[in-house]
Amino acid sequence: MAGQAGQGNSQGSSQESKARPGQRRMAQWTRDYARLPGIPDEYIGQDGAPRAVWTRFFDAFAAMAPADVEKRFASADRHLREAGVTYRAPGETADRLWPLSHLPLIIDETDWQQLSAGIAQRAQLLEMVLRDLYGEGRLVTEGAIPAAAIAGSNEYLRAVCGVKPPGGRYLHLYAADVGRGPDGRWWVLGDRTQAPSGAGYALENRLVLSRAFSNLYKSMNVERVAPFFEAFRESLRAGADRDEPRIGLLTPGAFSETYFEHATLARYLGFLLVEGDDLAVSGDRIHIRTVAGLKRLDVLLRRVDSNFLDPLELDASSHLGVPGLIDVLRKNGVVVANMPGSGVLEARALLGFLPSLSRRFLGEDLSMPHIATWWCGQKSAREEVLDRLDDFAIEGAYSRSVPGFPGHGPVLAGELSPADRDRLKSAIADRGVDYVGQELVRLSTTPVWEDGRIAPRPFVLRVFAAATADGGWTILPGGFCRIAEQPDARAVSMGDGARSADVWVVSDKAVATSTLLPAADTVRIKRIAGVVPSRAADNLFWLGRYLERAEATLRLIRVLGTPTRDPVNGASSGPATSLPSVERIQRLLVTWGAATQASRANPAKVVAEALQNPEKFGSALSLLKSAQRTATSLRERLSPDAWQVITEMTERLALQVDDDDAVVSAAELTLQELASFAGLAQENMNRAAGWRFLEMGRRIERAINTARFARQFGYDEAGDEDLDVLLTLVDCQITYRSRYLVGPALAPVRDLAVLDPYNPRSVAFQVAALNEHIASLPSLKEHGLIERPQRLAVALQAMLTTAEAAALDIKALFALEQDLLNLADAIGLHYFPHGPNASRPEKLTGLA
């Protein structure tokens, strides 16, 4: 018994010793944490005590060793970098790495229920307001909303007045930016009804943080987000007029600030990612331009602002939309989410009218208030704002910017110079409809991790509501949280050095795991290739070509830069090739735009330029950057592993390498990574049209490069040195030596590089593969005749099959190279038309 008692004491001491380090860490983290005066905080409640949900989180968090915490933080950062999670700040041309806060924003279940109920009520109210504004118009005629408050917004579209939304809804996705008000309750800071962004980034935040802290995530019973996206997808599907609709996500393109999010949502929801040029109007329907002709599109989830959707009836300068889209809407031919013109509800001029509209439509007060707002288009409100100007934040009534003042966000009169203050007063007095005065508020705060402890920082939480098929609303349990770096921020934009955070809605009981995958017994088995928009096929084709061009350049670099080693002391004695071969390689690199003519006197300089000179369009670095830009437009179609390989290659070559041996080593490593990408594509991509176009790009470019190599180094008078270079460039040294017991001879080398159908690097092998791919693609003409790309490929294959190596002189090799270039052009012209008015022979597949 004594032994047992002693053992118990030992266990108790052990548990206590384990608890103490965690308690000490907790005390150290929170020692200097203090709620900002008069500002609500997520960690410290209104009573001055830590909220229970945060105490529960930090207790579990502090149980981890500091080294383990830092390891998990690094894992999250590494995932963001490797997955290429990026965004683009307004006005910038380069992508930034997504800045994820290492701590989530945590909300308990009771608090969340109140918040989500207020969001659902607000979404329903705004749907009813939109229905009236674009329908009967009774709110304006009966004076519930002044006409000027609506007409002043360029988001009020007369072109859609009287158009009933196909699918029955104006709003399919609504979002509200919220924060805690002075009393600790949630307040609405702004409405997002145009094309709410952030849900895709919220999804990525959840993926990263739940992986980095998987055990903590599970133990906190965090509500899952998959049911929200499933309900949203089902609502869009239910709005269409056929059982299995085709849904597209309309993006402005790869230069959009949030393009990564568009690709993430399209991939996660199974939608087609399309741009305006991918779509065409035919009859009463919208169709996608695909490599198999026009295919009907039933639902369009738009991320393009309303005014740019149709250059025929809206902004005529737009290149982002679809000519004729509004007319298709009138004819009930496509569901658009959200309905064009819905952005009118984002106008701050309407905020002051929403409480009375809630009582009118819903028969109840708004359960969640918003910032007190005075629209200066009304005399009484304008006079009050001018009388107490220093007590208000002045905002634009219809836009993020304040008319007449630079930048985005509010203008504080008390912080203006006397001249600017007078100018602001005059502008409000002269044209008050363009301005609102809002109550001065500072954003509530949440804990962030900084230098080994937590600190309060202002945040804005964007909460999403999705319409459901039964007419209600479902709320994303979490949201898109942006955190400012400045302690006294009044607004948060991802372009102002802010960071984002995952949002955990936690429960006291276990939550059910969920997935976007449907139950197995409800899925009908399919074995169809799917739809490949022409633009996506074009990008896949050129991705293959850019990567193959980079490989050819790297092979030249490796041959030119590989030195011959002195057998005695190992010292370098110059390039391994003879002077004529060196000249030919250098001339080819200059011709390809990889190096400058002035560098040809120094082979080492040519090698360095061809590898890393970003100013030369043909350098390996430039070609890989082109491949990366092209891959950016294919994010929804490339696996994370494939994207990671491209990113790592580009980043590695961007690091300056000065040592000659290091240059060759970098080239060899990049060649290995290119082989890795080819393996990923070969083993992991579904054998559909998208894979075929990637393969066609690689095959046509490899054939062109091999023909060029054969012409440069397998010419009629080529000696052993040049032929040896050719065998090295086409990676056939081992094959040649196994077949022939003599040194390089012209005819056998030419046969191996050009005509051998069994050599995966020969021209004949590439042309045979191209024939197979082209023959597998659908015909775009209905007359049944062989189409031009296939006609050229068949002719090339016949010529290569019947040719003899002895007859492959320089003239024949040059003609072969030109035929391959013509085939590449024919593929592009046939399958990749550009622009909304591009003409090509294609058949309309109707309901397919």
Task: Record keyword descriptors for this entry.
single chain, 848 residues, alpha+beta, Dna Ligase, domain 1, four-stranded parallel beta sheet, 45% helix, 13% strand, disordered C terminus, ATP-dep_Glu-Cys_Ligase-2, CP_ATPgrasp_2, DUF403
What do these coordinates show?
This protein is α+β, with helices and mostly antiparallel strands and 848 residues long. Among the domains are: 68 residues, Dna Ligase, domain 1 (2-Layer Sandwich), CATH 3.30.1490; 297 residues, no CATH class. The protein contains 27 helices and 24 strands. Strands 4, 5, 17, 18, 19, 20 and 21 form a seven-stranded antiparallel beta sheet that branches. A four-stranded parallel beta sheet has the order 7-6-11-12, with helices on one face. A four-stranded antiparallel beta sheet has the order 13-16-14-15, with helices on one face. Strand 1 and strand 2 form a beta hairpin. Helix 4 crosses helix 12. The termini are far apart. The N terminus and C terminus are likely disordered.
